[in-house]
Amino acid sequence: MTVHGHAAEDAAFVRTYALTRGRTKPRHLLALDTVLDAGPGRPGPAQVEECEEILALCRERRRSVTELAGRLRRPVTAVKVLVSDLLDADALIVPVTASDTDSDAGPSTQLLAALSAGLKRKWPDAIAYPQAG
Predict the structure, then answer these.
(1) Which residue from 75, 85, 4 is spatially nearest to 43, judged by alpha carbons?
(2) Which of 14, 23, 95, 121 stands 20 to 30 A from 3 (CA)?
(3) Which residues contact 63 (CB under 8 A, 6 or more apart)?
(4) Which runs of consecutive H residues, i.e. helices, occur in the chain?
(5) Which one-letter DSSP state was computed for residue 63?
(6) Which residues pair with 92 in a beta bridge?
């Protein structure tokens, strides 16, 4: 690899670091196949251009986290951080489908993760109680 190649890699790393404001972990539990849809909220004024791109893609149709990362040509971890920001702003939602509510199979892991994230957002200082049993 040439020196020029290292400079390009360094620039991409710095851009990703700035994109997420140094954060490396999303606040929400998001799988690679988590499907997202545009929600009623709006991203904050300080949110980056990529957030608008994510919203535009999700307005066209539902998209997975992996598909968003591929279309933006950004690392999945960085996209998860941005998606978490958009979920907090209600600009994105995790839609509930008929398969999520199939009474025979019980709730899906994705549905439970979305529910947990919503409860944590609503009551961030709530105490976790141990399970009975």
Answers:
(1) 85
(2) 23
(3) 35, 36, 57, 71
(4) 3-19, 49-60, 65-72, 76-88, 109-122
(5) E
(6) 38
Contact between residue 43 and residue 51 where contact means Cβ atoms under 8 Å apart: yes
Query: Can you tell me which residue has the tokens 């971890």?
Result: 77
Confidence of residue 104 (pLDDT cuts 50, 70, 90): low
Element holding 93 (H helix, E strand): strand 92-93
Strand 35-38 to 92-93 pairing:
antiparallel
Q: Which long-range contacts (CB under 8 A, 24 or more apart) does 95-100 make?
A: 95/35, 95/36, 95/37, 95/62
Neighbouring CB atoms inside 10 A of 78's CB total: 20
Per-residue pLDDT tens digits for 28-51? 889 998 999 999 988 877 777 888
State the Cα–Cα distance between residues 110 and 120, nearest whole angstrom: 15
Distance CA 64, CA 30 (A): 10
